[in-house]
Description:
0% strand; single chain; 3 helices; mainly alpha; 66 residues; globular
Amino acid sequence: MKSRAMLRFGSLSRNYRAKHDLKNTAIAGCFTGGALAYGGGPQAMCLGCATLSAFSVMIDRFMERD
């Protein structure tokens, strides 16, 4: 579920912005984290957004390293 949502949000962000960069990863992570924490209320959604966004960017940067 999480990976499917992440891919969907990443694809939407990439298509809307017409760019392929780390911002798309951060946006996708934020929306996915917020959506997964929806049942916990606004504070949990904000924390989920920040956490998954930061984690996604860190993983993306690590994977791009040569």
